[in-house]
Amino acid sequence: MNQNQRTCRVIGTWALFLAAVTVFGLGCAAMQPEKPKTLTLTERGTVLFLDKYEFKRPPQNWALMKNLEGGDFELGFLLMEKGEFPSQTTFMYDEEPYGGSQNLEKRAKYYCTRFLFNSGIDVRVTKQEKTTVAGNEAIALHLEGENPNRAEKAKSKVYLVKKGNRIFSFVCTMWRPMNATYAQEPFDYFETFVHSFTFLKKGFYENLEEELKKQGL
Q1: Can you spell out the DSSP letters for the chain?
Q2: Rounded to 10 degrees, what is the CA torsion of 123, 128, 134, 137?
Q3: What's the order of all strands across the beta sheet hosting 75-80?
Q4: Which residues pair with 152 in a beta bridge?
Q5: How do residues 55-95 score in pLDDT, each as one tens digit?
Q6: Domain 39-214 sits in which CATH superfamily?
Q7: What is the Cα 177 distance to its own chain's centre?
Q8: Which pTM was predicted?
Q9: With the CA atoms of 41, 131, 204 and 75 taken in that order, what torsion angle do they form, in degrees rounded to the nearest 10?
């Protein structure tokens, strides 16, 4: 066998090997389960979030924020607004708000000591009221604060909701430069989000509570 024949055979062997690897790789990719869509539209004008929650989302210019690997919250929305930094609004669902008490009043009192703690905003409660969310007992907190060192301010509304033996929250915060005005529309979208929010499946804590009851604990 001359050198040219040997070279052609080696090249042909590597080509077959690479083709086989490619086909195998594509086959493995095809066998992987398809990831569910994060948001799925319904005929009711709502969206499903990973088939876990259903709610009315804000307009499309609000960006979806999601944290599926654990963190401060699981899902929310962000609106970058016109104006000087930090002109933006966020709202979110948080299943583990600050504190550990199952008493709403005590939880709210502790929550206010931690809210926006790392932002430098000096937060004050402007209004606190008892209410209901989806038939569940809740407390609504209205908060405002400023950070003169950074020439910024924030306005928030928080719902702490008691469902069974656990408390979760909905949080909306609007950030503005000190000389800017607050807007009402983003808070209206937040209210729609909160009062349309439905749990489609039992969460981890609900399943845990049921299991503990079964065991008499």
Answers
A1: --HHHHHHHHHHHHHHHHHHHHHHHHHHHHHSPPPPPSEEE-TTS-EEETTTEEE----TTSEEEE--SSSS-SEEEEEE-SSSTT-EEEEEEESS-S---SSHHHHHHHHHHHTTGGGT-EEEEEEEEEEEETTEEEEEEEEEEEETTTTEEEEEEEEEEEETTEEEEEEEEEEEETTS---SHHHHHHHHHHHH-EE-S--HHHHHHHHHHHTT-
A2: 120
A3: 63-66, 75-80, 88-94, 166-177, 152-163, 136-147, 122-133
A4: 147, 177
A5: 999 999 999 998 755 556 889 999 999 999 999 999 999 99
A6: Mog1/PsbP, alpha/beta/alpha sandwich (3.40.1000.10)
A7: 25
A8: 0.79
A9: 40
And the tokens for 99?
A: 């504190």
Domain residues of the chain, as ranges?
1-32, 39-214
> Residue 165 is which amino acid?
N
Q: Give the number of residues written for the chain.
A: 217
